[in-house]
Amino acid sequence: MSTWLCLKKTVFQIIRVFP
């Protein structure tokens, strides 16, 4: 579950920096 959370956090940050 830790990997899933880490992945979600990374994706969220990338999306936030994308736009």
UniProtKB/TrEMBL annotation:
Protein name in UniProt: Uncharacterized protein
Organism: Spirodela intermedia (Intermediate duckweed)
Superkingdom, taxonomy of origin: Eukaryota
